Amino acid sequence: MYDTTDMYYYKAQSPSINFIEAIPQYLTHVSNEGESEFGEYINGYINTLSVSVTKNRIKITGSLCKFYLGDNFKSLTKGDTKRAIEKISDYLHLPINDAHVTRLDIAQNLIMKLPVDDYYKYLGEVQYYKRLEQSNGLYYNNQLRQMVFYGKEYEQRVKKQHIPELYKYRNVLRFELRFLKRLSEQFKLPEITANLLYDEVFYSELVKRWKNEYLAIQKINSSLTSINPTSSTKVLIENMALLALLEIGQPKVLSTVKEWQNMGLINKKQAADHRKKIKLLSNIPINENGNELITELNKKIKETARCW
Known about the structure:
The chain is α+β, with helices and mostly antiparallel strands.
């Protein structure tokens, strides 16, 4: 479940320890002694985690899953998370369960029937995020969070990294939800500490957030084998417009409307009306079966959340 985390342990939590003198001896590949805005610093590693040490703080960054399980194809359970934090504490000889968490990524790998790129065009807009398709996946960004869909098996092959037998030559879609900053505000808690990561209530809330953020994405119809019969010319025209919209892609049409507005060809209200109509068209039911790819993805997401 957990992937990348940023954790900070501060001098005030262990005032008797000189971080610069005590901590580097526990690190490997120690380098970059120098000065920064935080004073003298030393960088190193514990296993796969990056550790930066200054006089007043220790920053620990990296994938908890890779650190504890060896790769992030596996799913880090609540119990694994507790043991991972304990292992970091043993390495550094500090109670890292008290460390402050400032970034938190949760993710899962889903084995799909078709190539992962085939699913992106049916994932539309979502409130409070900006949708961005890139060569390495589909991104949804806002100032606090990020949702990412990408091909995990393909990424590992490109990086020439190990791929477990279960996932070799499979269509592995990874969905990540990244809480990038202001975590206490996002979770409505005074602070987020490492021991919360294996707390039953907090863990369950994270799983729910992972599922619900995905479900909030507008799903675009694609089953075009039949159009529901209608005696209404207006409805028929709307259905035909939907077919064109699906062929072009909702994101591209919305992008074109935005370009028209930026060029002054339409005003703000007209652009808003266009966007509203485009999104309404995308929700028109085509047939009973709906979008098979989205049905498959919805099922995988819900099953994963239920079993986590």
